[in-house]
Design brief:
The chain is of the alpha+beta class. Helices cover 22% and strands 30% of the residues. Helix 4 packs antiparallel against helix 5.
């Protein structure tokens, strides 16, 4: 095994914290680091390690939006509106079903032939990086025809569930308007629309506001921490240490004594409160 890319600490640091001097349980501790890091990210509803993020955000017609994984290091693109990138139609009239979906990191083609045979084809954006190469591959997949309208990054396409193409055309879209002026609060992860000089919507909209639509704003940015904050590391230490030291004991027992020797284990509610105090400032509020 190896530490995951989102690991909040290291095996060596955990061993120092717990006073472990042997390497007997290194693999176990490594697994605990990975598991606890996942748990903390899920509880906080965000990622922490610095990386490039691509996010579609709800704007609700406001001038300021918040990215999901602050702090922001740099912003590559803020865009909204839509333009067609690829059109897809079914290629076999007798097919019972044929759908195309755009998921987080891939296009998914689902086909049911007239004899009931089902086929699923997943096309990863890491392989088909542009809409030109993606359209070409869709066109090469049995049961589907595709035409590229504009060349763009495949990973920037709007997400959608399976769209039937047996009797209609699916339009796969990308953001269009990327020419607005905006300001960035790097520490808090806020993006403030200063001026929108190119409104391209048919609907009635207020000037200098992000569109009031579901996942209408696309942001690509580098965010997270190059150095994980001490509070996150401490929370990981406490969760890992507690799990490590308690792996062989009955967790229903809070205290135990033998002659003149006794010990008391802090209740789980106290552990939870302490850890949540450390993690609270990092929790994303929806």
């Amino acid at each position: 095994m190896a530490l995951a890319s989102n690991a909040l600490t290291t095996v060596a640091a955990v061993k120092t914290y717990m006073g472990v001097t042997t390497s007997t349980d290194d693999d176990l501790i490594e697994t605990m680091v990975n598991n606890v890091s996942d748990q903390i990210e899920r509880w906080c509803d965000r990622s922490f390690a610095s990386q490039t993020f691509t996010e579609y955000l709800d704007a609700y017609g406001t001038r300021t939006i918040a990215v999901q994984n602050p702090p922001v290091v740099s912003v590559d693109l803020v865009a909204f509106s839509t333009q067609d990138a690829i059109t897809v139609t079914g290629a076999v009239d007798s097919d019972i079903a044929a759908t195309v979906a755009i998921e987080g990191d891939q296009a998914r083609l689902y086909r049911v032939q007239e004899d009931g045979t089902e086929t699923v084809t997943n096309l990863a954006f890491s392989t088909y990086k542009t809409t030109t190469t993606l359209a070409s591959q869709i066109n090469s997949t049995a049961g589907f025809d595709a035409t590229v309208v504009v060349n763009a990054l495949s990973k920037n396409m709007h997400h959608m569930g399976g769209r039937d193409v047996t009797s209609t055309t699916a339009y796969l879209t990308v953001p269009d308007d990327a020419e607005s002026e905006y300001r960035v609060d790097y520490d808090r992860g806020f993006i403030h629309l200063r001026a929108d000089a190119f409104p391209r919507f048919n609907e009635t909209r207020r000037n200098n506001r992000f569109p009031n639509q579901f996942q209408s704003v696309f942001v690509q940015y580098v965010g997270g921490y190059e150095t994980i904050p001490n509070a996150l590391v401490q929370a990981a230490f406490e969760l890992i240490s507690d799990a490590y030291r308690g792996r062989d004991r009955d967790r229903a027992i809070n205290n135990e004594s033998l002659g003149d020797y006794s010990y008391t284990v802090r209740s789980w509610s106290e552990w939870s409160e302490n850890v949540q105090t450390l993690l609270g400032p990092f929790k994303r509020i929806r």
